[in-house]
Design brief:
Layout: H1 9-24, H2 28-46, H3 51-66, H4 70-88, H5 93-108, H6 112-133, H7 140-153, H8 158-171
Helix pairs in contact: 1-2, 2-3, 3-4, 4-5, 5-6, 6-7, 6-8, 7-8
């Protein structure tokens, strides 16, 4: 703050990082004002539709989710998703991360029917990334597991889950046995 001034984007980065550290050490009450301040600085610096703002919204939304403030978290996560879809396009891995976070929030609030298409899309995006680059996305196996867990919570049989996974893999242009 002394070097750049209280409202400089580098201060927002430091605030956001400290907020994340505090969140990870279960110091949520200390983390929240730092994350909110980082969001405010970034909105002022970059405008309300910048990917950096989406990152801040997502991080704050994740904090609120962890503190069972789902109603407050959801619009932040939706806004982060919208910004990143506009900024990067609908098939970008960052969009998949936002979709996954929103899908898991919906799953945590027992809104499985709403979560399912989001989680399906997450898997498809990361499969497409893997196909395009020739390298498995580092989160691919986790999101496949998240999707399978959601389907299981929805009462789907193991056979139905395997069929759903095979279908999304086919739609992404991957052979069903590929993970």
């Amino acid at each position: 703050e002394k070097s750049h001034g209280e409202e400089h984007p580098q201060v927002a980065v430091a605030l956001n990082n400290l907020g994340l550290l505090l969140k990870e050490t279960n110091r949520h009450e200390e983390a929240e004002p730092l994350m909110k301040r980082a969001l405010s600085i970034d909105e002022s610096s970059y405008g309300p539709e910048h990917p950096t703002v989406a990152r801040d919204l997502n991080n704050l939304g994740q904090l609120l989710k962890e503190t069972n403030r789902h109603v407050e978290a959801e619009p932040l996560m939706e806004r982060a998703l919208s910004i990143d879809e506009s900024s990067y396009g609908p098939e970008h891995p960052t969009v998949a991360i936002r979709l996954n976070n929103l899908g898991q929030l919906l799953q945590a609030t027992n809104r499985h029917v709403e979560a399912e298409p989001l989680m399906n899309r997450v898997v498809r995006i990361l499969l497409l990334f893997t196909k395009r680059t020739g390298h498995e996305h580092p989160h691919l196996r986790v999101v496949i597991g998240n999707y399978a867990s959601l389907l299981q919570e929805m009462g789907r049989s193991e056979e139905d889950i395997l069929a759903a996974l095979a279908k999304v893999k086919r739609e992404a242009g991957n052979p069903p046995e590929a993970e």
